[in-house]
Target: HAD superfamily hydrolase
Amino acid sequence: MYYKFLLFDLDHTLLDFARGEEQALNQFLEVMGVEDKETFKAYYKPMNQAMWKELEQGKISKVDLINTRFARAFAHFGREVDGREMALLYQDYISQQGQTFDGAVDLLQQLLELGYDLYGATNGVTYIQENRLAHSPIQSFFKEIFISEQMGTKKPEALFYEKIAERIPGFTKEQALMIGDSLTADVQGGNNAGIDTVWYNPISLENQTNAQPTYEVKNYQELLALLKGKK
Model:
C-alpha cells in the first residue's frame, strides 16, 4: 500500500527556523539594550537547543523551558530578568517569522498535485507556530497543523501520533509517512508509532542514535522523486 498522509515537521524541514530566530533575537535584544548581541546569541542558541532536547526526553516541561530559558541566558551574563516576561516579549518577535527554505512552496504544490494529503506535525508553542505559519507562504497547503502544546503530547511520543490518527478521516499507519529533520523527534516518533519515516538530512549528518529512518533524503528533489514513486 502506498502513502497518502504526509506528516511534515515544520522547523528546519520547511520553515527556516535559523533565519527566523536570528531576526527575532536581534529585535528582542535591541529592545533589551543588549550591546554585544553576537556573544549573547552564541550562548543562548545552543542552550536553547539543549533545553528542547531535554523536553523531548521528558526531563523538563514546556512551561519550564519557555519561562526559564531567557532568565538563564541573562543570568549567564550577570543580569537578572523575569523569565516569563521575557518569554512574552520574545514571543511577539518570533511569531512574526515565517521564512521558508527555497523550494518549500514548490515541493508542497507538487505533492498536492500528486494527490497527497498534507499535514503539519510540530513540537512548539501554539501561539508562535500558528502565527509563524500565518506569516509564511505554506499554511494553505496543509489540511491541519498538529502542534504539541495543543495535543497535550509531543514528538517522539507514540501518543502524539495516536491523537493525530484520531483526527484524520480514514487514517491508517500503513498509508502515513512522517517527514522531518530530527532523528530524535521525527524519526524516533515514527518508530515509536509504527509509522514509516523520511529523514530530511540536508547537511549529511551521521545517524548516531537508535532511530531508524525508512528513507533518507538530502534535498527536496530527492524527496519529491521518492514520493512520485510511491503513487
